[in-house]
Write a structure and sequence with these properties.
Largest sheet: 2 strands, antiparallel
Distance between the termini: 40 Å
Number of helices: 4
Strand content: 5-15%
Helix content: 40-55%
Radius of gyration: 15 Å
Number of domains: 1
Order of helices and strands: HHHEEH
Structural class: mainly alpha
Strand order of the largest sheet: 1-2
């Protein structure tokens, strides 16, 4: 896993949040769970007007499984009849505790966006007007 210093992680995470905000035309920055939800929707490949609470949780789980699959912690098994992806857990990620898990996943999310062809980090963070 790529290791980032705290300041670098904070900076790159803020770039991701601004990129998503700007791309979606949202008035506010997305939080960690919101970003996992959006990644899950992207990996699902299906967009609908509204998802149930359970579907939203499933979408965040899809995002986590996808992010962790590149390191071999999960393996894609296939799609169910509704077109939802399913993963099999192969190993336990190396983090202990909620904070370490969030840090680990933020690094994975940053890497995910850097690998996207249309990702350009936002350089506008403060607009006093």
């Amino acid at each position: 896993m790529e290791e980032l210093e705290d300041w670098q992680l904070d900076f790159e995470w803020l770039q991701i949040r601004h990129y998503i905000k700007d791309t979606l035309g949202s008035p506010k920055l997305p939080d960690f769970q919101g970003i996992l939800f959006l990644l899950g929707v992207q990996e699902l490949g299906q967009l609908k007007e509204e998802f149930t609470k359970e579907e939203k949780q499933d979408l965040m789980h899809i995002a986590v499984c996808h992010l962790l699959s590149e390191d071999g912690y999960y393996e894609f098994e296939g799609f169910d009849d509704a077109g939802w992806p399913h993963f099999k857990q192969l190993g336990q990620p190396p983090y202990k505790g909620v904070e370490a898990q969030e840090r680990f996943l933020k690094i994975k999310i940053i890497k995910y966006f850097k690998e996207q062809q249309d990702y350009t980090p936002s350089t506008t963070y403060y607009n006093p007007n």
